[in-house]
Design brief:
The protein is α+β, with helices and mostly antiparallel strands and 461 residues long. The chain has 17 helices and 23 strands.
Length: 461
């Protein structure tokens, strides 16, 4: 078998799932398999198609097992997702956090959930607070809920399917769930009063080996029977981990995909505003990290599809004061209480006649200005590292560099989430693979000052 030992990283995002083969020594990604994630729109409520994912994961791991000797598997997933186990399977299907069913108990849950000062978890719509999901599930489906004998965060659900070991860790528990007190690193009053702390699987660290793969998994994939499974981590914190291991604070990491999560180690918890989708994440070492977010990928797709922005189009958009105002993902981000619209010098406009490049330019500038606000709210300082799809958007990078007046560093050819998850397999003292920083993005030549002032005035910034 060519090459040395490898690590398999499973990355379950909201929109897409990925399995990456990572060289153990260099942390280079040598192979990737992807699939579109799906939600089953059926009773008892919209839920993730975990069986389809499982079969695909086994097939992908089997393909990689024929290429390299895989010595460990690490899992990272999106947040706002917990799994209730009962015996050898699910007590209830894995709820899609965008489903609005939990809103039926909003009044009751608002009274029950802890204050922002305790949890640093904002009050979010639908099931984006995992505590709201669980609160609703136990009341809407009491008989099925009563069969649950373990509660697992989503990364550890997949680790359980691979190893049979039940575990939990705090990057997922501390991700806007209402279930964790990040300052004191203990379960929240709500989690204790509802009994979720007792139902939760035992706490471990993200890099702890929780077991070896099950014999059935080894037989189905060809993976060696001694292949380790580490506990795993929330995806934004996977992106953050390599930088925590390599940099001094303060700095900020923008982990982008369906969501853009701005994590600001060294920032201030005191300026976080629960009305503006601010929160504290909990990093791999258990520390609270000021964070803000908005659905950058989702909104860009709605505004411009897959079109690429150009600076020439940006010149036209800026000259005409064509702009996107928040938000097209209601209830999320620093402008979650507003309704998205397009604006020109003459007022509200229909964007249909705009050229594709101009729509992409306006969408990129919109992402820039919302991101600037996110960094401001988190008290971010120091260099800004951009990972994921937005790292390939040159207009966004250059515009952001002008607005924040600090180095903006793009990692378009690296997947921080994959590297961070792979590092878990090497233990708490692992060293990240990337060396020197890339050249900072050159600030945009066109002055955005007047455009940004109008945008902020209209957005109510």
């Amino acid at each position: 078998m060519a090459g040395g030992a490898a690590i398999a990283v499973i990355d379950i995002g909201k929109s897409n799932a990925k399995v990456a083969l990572v060289d153990r020594e260099t942390l280079a990604v040598t192979g990737i398999r992807t699939m579109v994630n799906t939600v089953i729109q059926a009773r008892p409520y919209p839920h993730y198609d975990v069986e389809r994912l499982w079969q695909w994961l086994l097939a992908s791991l089997g393909e990689f097992a024929r290429e390299r000797e895989i010595e460990a598997i690490s899992v990272t997933t999106h947040g706002a997702c917990f799994v209730l186990l009962g015996g050898d399977g699910l007590a209830l299907p894995v709820l899609d956090y965008e489903y609005d069913g939990p809103e039926s108990l909003r009044v009751e849950y608002t009274k029950a959930r802890g204050p922002f000062s305790e949890t640093l978890s904002p009050d979010l719509p639908n099931g984006l607070n995992a505590g709201r999901q669980l609160y609703w599930l136990c009341r809407a489906f009491p008989e099925a809920y009563a069969t649950a004998d373990a509660l697992l965060p989503y990364p550890q659900y997949w680790a359980w399917r691979l190893s049979g070991a039940r575990a939990a860790e705090t990057t997922s528990i501390g991700c806007h769930t209402d279930m964790w007190n990040p300052r004191e690193a203990i379960y929240s009053d709500l989690a204790r009063s509802e009994g979720w702390d007792r139902l939760m699987a035992p706490l471990v660290r993200p890099w702890d080996t929780i077991g070896r793969i099950l014999p059935a998994v080894s037989a189905a994939t060809g993976l060696p029977p001694n292949c380790r499974v580490v506990a795993g981590i929330h995806d934004s914190n996977a992106s953050l981990l390599p930088h925590l291991l390599a940099r001094r604070t303060p700095f900020a990491v923008l982990s982008t995909g369906t969501w853009m999560v701005a994590l600001a180690p060294g920032g201030s918890l005191d300026g976080l505003d629960q009305r503006r989708d601010c929160l504290a994440n909990v990093d791999a070492f258990g520390h609270a990290v000021p964070s803000t977010r908005f659905m950058a990928g989702r909104e860009y797709e709605l505004l411009a599809g897959t079109a690429t922005a150009t600076e020439k189009a940006a010149e036209r958009v800026i000259a005409d004061h064509t702009m996107v105002l928040p938000t097209f993902a209601p209830g999320t981000g620093p402008y979650g209480n507003q309704t998205g619209r397009w604006l020109s010098r003459d007022g509200v406009m229909d964007p249909t006649p705009l050229a594709v490049a101009e729509r992409a330019a306006a969408a990129s500038l919109y992402a820039t200005l919302v991101t600037e606000k996110c960094l401001e709210l988190a008290g971010a300082d120091g260099p800004v590292i951009v990972e994921g799809p937005l790292a390939r958007n040159t207009l966004f990078l250059r515009a952001l560099a002008q607005r924040v007046d600090r180095p903006v560093l793009a990692r378009p050819d690296a997947t921080g989430t994959t590297e961070g998850a792979a590092l878990l397999a090497l233990g708490a003292d692992a060293k990240p693979a990337h060396g020197d920083d890339p050249e900072p993005a050159m600030p945009l030549d066109i002055d955005l000052g007047a455009y940004a002032r109008v945008w902020r005035q209209q957005a109510g910034a």
